[in-house]
Amino acid sequence: MASCALVFVAVFPERVGDPVRAVLALLLAGVVFGLVLVEQLFRNVPVASRWGLKPLCLGLAAGYVFDLYFFADGFLFGRPDVDIWAARGFVATVLIPLIALSAARSPSWTVKIAVSREVVFHSTALALSGVYLLVIAAAGYYVRYFGGDWGRVLQVALVSAGLLLLGVFVFSGTQRARLRVFVNKNLFPYRYDYRTEWLRFTQALSSADDSMNLGQSVIKALSDLVESSGGALWLRDKAGMFLPHARLNHPAIDVAESADSDFCRFLDEREWIVNLEEVRMMGGRTRSGNALLPEWLSRLPDAWLVVPLKSAGTLVGFVVLNSARTRFEVNWEVLDLLKTAQRQAASYLARMQAAEALIESRKFDSFNRMSAFVVHDLKNLVAQLSLMLKNAERHRDNPEFQQDMLDTVVHVEAKMRSLMQQLQEKKSVEPTRRIDLGAMLEAIRASKRHQIPELELVLSHGDRIEVVAHAERLQRVIGHVVQNALDATAEGGKVSVHLDCTDASSVSVIVADTGCGMSQEFIRNRLFKPFQTSKSSGMGIGMFETMQYIRELGGSLHVDSTPNVGTTVTMKLSRAGRGERKQTAEVQAE
Questions:
Q1: Lowest mean pLDDT among 217-221, 372-376, 566-570
Q2: H or E segment and range at residue 310
Q3: How far apart are CA 80 and CA 27, in angstroms?
């Protein structure tokens, strides 16, 4: 209320009267009471503590004395002096250093207000920018009024140049780094705000994307801790060589370092942050007298710090950081922070390498599995060619046999070409389509017509029986079951294939033989496992592939066998309905 009254007096001095004089009298009494409190504070404080409170009491007393003069003058003349009121803020500002001096002399004072380093940094930058603009404005004012005819032009040019210089300072990473170092060294007991630094470091590692990979993120996170502009990262490969993996604001470099070198062994054993400036001054060696710098590292003019990256006791790699943007003292605090940060970065890189190795291993596993299936098919094709050559001794002059031999060679060549293409593309090259099971079983019987015993085929009469599958793959797995039955049956035995379509939604392919049969223990523990076989020349993956593909089609496979009696294999598949017919037609139209 008193402030409002004083502002009213300053704006409308002609309306001053007794109410304002009464307000000034109350304010004057409050100032006198304040002086009494300051005197009592200084008098009652122990003599040993007066040294710390003396600047505070002096500042408070000076402020109250100024207010006493201001309010007394206003009370005597009936209105406050506007000039004295305008100077009141300046006087209060001058008294702040005295209060700050008392706070410095009394470390036991506690203030429950925490100001982050970011706030101090930006506040300091803003304050310095304001002071700079005030100086530019004062210089422009002087130039304008004392520059003659060119005063206004010089003022505009000076202000424009000043604003341009301020913009360069604001957007300069080097100048910001210098200001940050100045604030940390002079306004805080520790250089880093560890909570903020750790959150920023973790965020930098976890924000790798297409624009900056994990290696570049590690370089940036480490370089930001020491005001560096960037650097280069070396990672260890499977052969024990450290190769360049990523770089940031660093020229391309193609230099490998052996894990058995003195330098890498030093980084692995000591886990020290190597300051290359100190090492160069000591002739290329560390303070311990070892770790001779590699020649290529000595030739890097901008190299500053070498940060080893260790995870789980293993040297994953190392980072060479560029020189700092400003003069930066590498003390114990910086070294401890870098050591802690490098362990975090090394764990990220180690997990990245493990993930890449796992993906590569899965790719090789998938390729090897497909290769095993292809080799199995090649074995069957070779068996067909061997049987053909065996019969050629007796039927070479038979025209029908010659034609059959040519057809077999053409079939084998096409099949081998398809298998090679499948290996190259690492997937099945044939799309799924509707397949006539009756025609497929006829083709399988035709391919086995030269084998003994003769294969019998029983097809149900009625409509065309169709399923949706890869034609070649389904023919291969059914043909494998048929071939197993033929191999297990002697000349006088019987092997038959029966197509059962009594169920409207499914169809069963039943392969029965009167061969040697299998035990329940073999069926349960070995039959469907890869690389398990009872044949001397078998590979043990045919029934594994058959079970996998039948299940992939949504079907089921059941084996019923008795030793020395025979075996029955039932493969149950879903019949192609109208939905599949329409979908297949759309795919073929595309």
A1: 372-376
A2: strand 303-311
A3: 12
Give residue 370's identity as a one-letter amino acid code: M
In this structure, are residues 348 and 218 in contact, taking their beta carbons and an 8 Å threshold? yes
Using an 8 Å Cβ cutoff, are 528 and 544 in contact? Answer: yes
Which own/partner contact pairs does 2-5 have at CB distance under 8 Å and 24+ positions apart? 2/26, 2/27
Residue 220: half-sphere exposure toward Cβ, Cα within 13 Å? 17
CA 547 to chain centroid, in Å, comes to 39
- Ramachandran bin of 271, using left for φ above 0, alpha for ψ from -120 to 50, beta for the remaining angles: left
pTM given for the model = 0.44
Q: Partners of 306 in the beta sheet?
A: 274, 320
Summarised one tens digit per residue, pLDDT across range 25-82 is 888 888 889 888 888 888 888 877 778 888 888 888 988 888 888 888 888 877 778 8
Q: Identify the CA nearest to 465 among candidates 494, 502, 410, 520.
A: 502
Q: Which of 164-173, 189-198, 339-348 has the highest mean pLDDT?
A: 339-348
Provide the total of helices (H) and of strands (E) in the chain, helices listed first.
Answer: 19, 13
CA 369 to centroid of chain Cα atoms: 31
- C-alpha count within 13 angstroms, C-beta hemisphere, residue 378: 13
Q: How far apart are CA 309 and CA 346, in angstroms?
A: 5
Give the C-alpha distances (Å, rounded to integers) separating 277 from 267, 287, 323, 424: 17, 12, 10, 53
Rounded to an integer, what distance in angstroms lies between the CA atom of residue 411 and that of residue 569? 27
Percent of the chain predicted with pLDDT > 90: 11
State the Cα–Cα distance between residues 417 and 378, nearest whole angstrom.
11
Q: Give me the chain's average pLDDT, please.
A: 78
Kindly report the length of the chain.
590
Place of tokens 């499977």: 238
Pull the structure tokens for residue 420. Answer: 């090679």
Task: Check: CB of residue 515 under 8 Å from CB of residue 488.
Answer: yes
Q: Is 496 left (phi over 0), alpha (psi -120 to 50) or beta?
A: beta
Closest CA relative to residue 84, chosen from 95, 63, 69: 69
The dihedral over CA atoms of 119, 125, 130, 133, expressed in degrees to the nearest 10, equals -160
b/e code 86-104 from CB counts within 10 Å (16+ = b): eeeeeeeeebeebeebbee
Tokens coding 504 = 């409207």
Pairwise CA distance, residues 399 & 489, whole Å? 30
The CA radius of gyration of the chain, in Å to the nearest whole number, is 46
Return the number of other C-beta atoms located less than 10 Å from residue 261's C-beta: 15
Q: φ and ψ at 255, to 5 degrees?
A: -130, 130
Q: Could you write out the three-class secondary structure of 143-179?
A: HHHHCHHHHHHHHHHHHHHHHHHHHHHHCCHHHHHHH
| Amino acid identity for residue 496 in this structure | S
Residue 64 has which token pair?
A: 């109250």
Dihedral (C-alpha) 52, 56, 58, 62: value to the nearest 10 degrees?
Answer: 170
243 touches 227 (CB < 8 A): no
501 - beta bridge partners? none
Q: Tell me, letter by letter, the H, E, C secondary structure of 85-129.
A: HHHHHHHHHHHHHHHHHHHHHCCCCCCCCCCCHHHHHHHHHHHHH
Q: Alpha helix locations (H) across 488-568?
A: 520-525, 542-552
